[in-house]
C-alpha cells in the first residue's frame, strides 16, 4: 500500500515520520522548502523514506492511500479544487472539527466530493511531537467499510502507533471534534484560576454533552467512551501541549493568544451552537465556549450563567 500525506503541518509531518517505518511515504505541502526538519517539529529530522514535494498531482497519483492532514475549515475548499485527484483512493481524514458552513464532519465532505473513495477517519489522543519522537500512541481508525478499515488498520499501524478499528465513523469523528470545544472550556477554568475541581466538573459535564449530541446524530455511546472521545478529551483538557487548552487558558487569564495558531475548537464551538440549536439539544458548555471565543460574554458572566442553571439529576 503506497501512502501520501497531504498537509505538511506538524501533525502531517509527524505521521510521515511514523509511517515511514512501514515503507516510503510522500509528504505534500505548499511550502516544504524547510528541507529535512520542519520548524513546527524542531529536533525531528525526516527519515530518508519520506519524500517531500509541492506537486499535488504527482503526490496523489503515486499513492493508493491518502491521509488528509488539513484543518477542518479548509477541507471543503481543498476538495472543491482537487477532488478529482482523490476519487477512487483510500482517503483518511485526520481533521478534528465540524465544517462551519455545512455543519458536518470531514467524512461527509469526502464522501460527497469523492463518491468512489473508501473514506476513513484517524483520530484519538495524540500530539504531533509525541508521534514524531516515536512515543507509544493508540488511535482510532473509523471506516464504514470493514474490508477497507481492516486493510488500513494493518497498513497504518507501526510498532509504536497502534490503531483500533471501528465502523462508527460518526462517533469517532464527533469525539475528535467536540473534545476540542471542551478543552477550551477546561483551559478557561485554569486560566481564570478556578481550580482543578472546576476543571474536573467541566470535563465531566462536557463529556455528557459530547455523548448526547453524538448519539443524537447516530453515534454509538461506547465509541465516545473510547480513544476518540474520552481518551482524546482527557489528553487535551489536561496538557498545555493542546492548542485548544492553551487558547482557553489565555481567554480565562485575559491574555493575548498567537493568532497564527490554528484552534479547531473555536470554529467547532460555533458550528456546535448552530447544530444543537437546529436539533433542539441543550449544549450549555459548548454554547458558552462559542460566546467566549467570539468575545460575546466575559469569563465571570459565563461562570455565573453555568453555575446558576436549574438544579437537576445527573
From TrEMBL:
The active site is at 179 (proton acceptor). Pathway: Membrane lipid metabolism; glycerophospholipid metabolism. InterPro entries: 6-PGluconate_DH-like_C_sf (IPR008927), 6PGD_dom2 (IPR013328), G3P_DH_NAD-dep (IPR006168), G3P_DH_NAD-dep_C (IPR006109), G3P_DH_NAD-dep_N (IPR011128), NAD(P)-bd_dom_sf (IPR036291). Residues 3-146 form the Glycerol-3-phosphate dehydrogenase NAD-dependent N-terminal domain. Residues 1-16 form the signal peptide. Residues 168-304 form the Glycerol-3-phosphate dehydrogenase NAD-dependent C-terminal domain. Sn-glycerol 3-phosphate binds at residues 96, 124, 126, 179, 232, 242-244. Belongs to the NAD-dependent glycerol-3-phosphate dehydrogenase family. This is Glycerol-3-phosphate dehydrogenase [NAD(P)+]. The gene is gpsA.
